[in-house]
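Researcher: Structure for this, please.
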Amino acid sequence: MAKNEYLKILVAFMYPHEAHMAKTYLFSEGIDSELRDELTVQVDNFYSNAIGGVKLLVKEEDFSKGLEVLKKGGYINESGTKEKEVERVFVEKGFNKHACPFCSSENISIKKVPTIWTVLVLFVIHAAFPLLRKSYKCYDCEREWKFQRKKD
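Model: Predicted structure, token format:
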């Protein structure tokens, strides 16, 4: 890639190995790319958030094609982010919470995420309480969701 070409940040990754995989995938589709801040993150992983992660850059004219390629490859989702969106599923009494509401698979797990209250409690009294918000993940259809009661 010539040094005088204008490059645009396509996506930023937390870890260098993720960025290398995406760069290789873009190269296999004929898109030339470059990584920035890779070595800084390799020296100390905690710098990744401070500097905005490992940046994957492409030529300005390859930007839209690069986004489409990364979406097709599963590196980013339709909204252009790497995170999967957690869906809300409204439930009534007697609903089976031990199966995926989308594909009916029982191959699911419960993911507990700390709430703002957990962080405040830990900050104020330095003790851990089970104030974690539950979300579920299906390993067959790769979807995530939270259950929410229907309001009458």
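Researcher: Any notable elements?
Model: The chain has two domains: 7-73, 86-149. Residues 86-149 form one domain.
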